[in-house]
Design a protein that fits this description.
Layout: H1 2-26, H2 28-31, H3 46-52, H4 56-67, E1 70-73, E2 83-86, H5 89-98, H6 107-112, H7 125-139, H8 142-170, E3 173-175, H9 176-193, H10 208-225, H11 228-237, H12 240-270, H13 289-294, H14 298-304, H15 311-341, H16 344-356, H17 360-363, H18 375-378, H19 382-394, E4 400-404, E5 409-410, E6 416-417, E7 422-426, H20 427-430, H21 434-437, H22 477-494, E8 495-499, E9 520-529, E10 534-538
Parallel strand pairs: 2-7
Antiparallel strand pairs: 1-2, 3-9, 4-7, 5-6, 8-9, 9-10
Helix pairs in contact: 8-9, 8-22, 9-15, 10-12, 11-12, 12-15, 15-19, 15-22, 16-19
Amino acid sequence: MALLLTSSLEILMGVLLLLLALFLRKNARKFHDDRIPVEWPILGMLPGLFQEVHRIHDRCVEVFTASGGTFLFKGPRLARLDMLATADPANIHYIMSSNFHNFPKGPLFLKMFDFLGGGIFNSDYDDWRFQRKLARLLLTHRRFNRFLAKTSFDKVENGLIPILEMTAARGSVVDLQDVFQRLTFDTTCTLVTGYDPGCLSPSMPDVPFSKAMDDAEEAVFLRHVVPESVWRFERWVGIGPERKLKEACRVLDSVIGRYIAMKREALGERNVNKGGGGGGEEKEGGVDLLTSYLLQDDETMENVGLTNPDDKFLRDTILNLMIAGRDTTSSALTWFIWLVSNHPDIQTKIRDELESVLPVDEKKQESRKWHIFKADELNKLTYLHAAMCESLRLYPPVPFEHKEAAKPDILPSGHKVDPNVKVLISLYAMGRMEFIWGEDCSKFKPERWISEKGTIKHEPSYKFMAFNAGPRTCLGKEVAFTQMKVVASAIIHNYEIETVKGHNVEPNCSIILYMKHGFKVKVSRRSIDRSNCKLEHKTVV
């Protein structure tokens, strides 16, 4: 009898546990914060990641908001996809600055970004320090800065303005993101190699080099969310994104190799110690970076710890600089013009500031004169600079930063990290954290960058990471601002930009934060009658 009773109780207990399990499964969302990914047996949180990958940036905002700024993503067992994701400034300061040496790019980063070769983005320790020292020397030289100012102005005058004029005259729709990509591709290629590929022209030609860069970046993004074994298999078999990456690298190597050969030949024919071929002559115009690299003397190279650059070094350097210049600047311009054009009050303040630096003879004219601003006219414009910082806060061109711990460590938040766990910093989510920027964190508000004295307010880089932070702070920060200001001021001062009705604006899923569907707009010419301060805009016919 006792045995029968025991057996009955065990059966009853088993039935109750089964019913409880079914109930919990059916009602899991009632007991689980929807903002936190569900961890499944064996697969970890990967199913949820695939389900939300199309909105990965906003998903990060939700997760960080629910978790307090730091979250451990558990990948499938044995797949090495565990990631400690963070938007906590204390953690970021620790990783990027105070304990910088324990958080290099790491071997997995090198595998994921192998198409960049041994360039400055992939390098660590002494190799990185040597390359950075030489890049800083060249980027801050007055020869390059003269070339930067001239190239930026010329490309706006002879490339951008004709496209906008044609679009306005026809009343047609243009993808401004595509225009910016072409503009910054031409500009960056000219600044880096001395050769203008002519990507930005009324015919809008296909440029294999630019497409190859896009394909490479897409494949690298997918490597972040797919187990290494999968993408390594795809690369071995030659299928999927890995096949596109291989073909892209072939194009990149071919084009860059041709530029290097042309430059060596041009310099050899001229038998000079300064200047650059193919549009990079020094004179009053400055000089391109490839020429500068090739003309460095042995003593300079020895001082920075590098030997004379061979073609492999030049290939990797050019590609790293091209990606840094083309992608980040065009992304930043796209989001900035979209934000400004959709905030009329902010647009008016920028226009008023631009009017303040017009030449005196133009200010006295009753009708507005068409004007392209030079870099030195824009340097002291506080509100324009603040608006750009605010745009970069909300839409950082590089939305993620990837690190690995060389040795086991503990972050200020108390989270443990070891070499088997990737550390992922979401710059996009950082700009939308209330505990960092306040309750109005999602608002486009340039005033948050202006001090009571009317100057630009400094924010620490571990809070505002658009240009990275710590020892790896971007060397091209001033270059980017110069290009952005020359382009943006010409558009805002001379034109009205209207987003096409019904056009869906949302971030894409890539290592560069572009608009998924482009930026489709209509363009019209602005005119101002200063005699009665009346502002008008019209389509050119």
